[in-house]
Amino acid sequence: PMARFNRIALVANVQLPEIVDTLNRLSSFLEKGGYTLLVESETALLIDNKAFPTFDSNDLNQPLDLVIVVGGDGSMLGAARSMVGYGIPLLGVNRGRLGFLTDILPHEMEDKLQQVLSGEFITSNRFLLDVSIMRDGHLVSGGDALNDVVFHPGKSVRMMEFELYIDGQFVYSQRSDGLIVSTPTGSTAYALSGGGPIMNPNLDAIVLVPMNPHTLSSRPIVIGGGSNIEIRVG
Length: 234
Known about the structure:
- The protein is built from 5 helices and 14 strands.
- It has helices at 19-32, 41-44, 73-83, 109-117, 190-193; strands at residues 7-12, 36-40, 54-55, 66-71, 90-94, 129-135, 138-145, 148-151, 160-166, 169-176, 178-182, 205-211, 221-224, 229-233.
- The model has no long low-confidence stretch (mean pLDDT 89).
């Protein structure tokens, strides 16, 4: 194998019963190819061959060249969040229902994987949203999002009123069910069903999509990817 991808990790959505066959095929294909394979600890329980070393995706102190994610887009989003600090490329094998992010289908798995491992691939860089929740000037919670950050009143059916600021400038005050703040990657997810535009994944932009706004003039807004978005609740 090429020096480019020697150490490969395997992560799967273990909730999908039909992935066992895919995982067994994938692991034996990589083993035969002479690659060093590490398997996420829960995923390892589904693989017949118990000889592969395992790792915990929350505590990755392993040097890796590639992470293969088996599942749907949800699996890819989870892997992206847990791997974001390591700069390791992710490759998706689609076993879920939705597959905008997962590129390889099971029937073509070995062929497509061989292409990637021999250097035939295009790297697509995606950015994440960095979210902080503040109360009385104190950080309450925070996180990263590859798709979107959704601001809404939870289980309550009442509308909420909030003010939107972009880079410190007041944009509007709104009454709605909430607001979807989405990356281009997430533009084909929740933002799309809210009436947002489909964005090319390579765009450096963020779209703000109001959820059922109480006005006729409220439209999605596309802003620069480096913008600082602040949503203030009364």
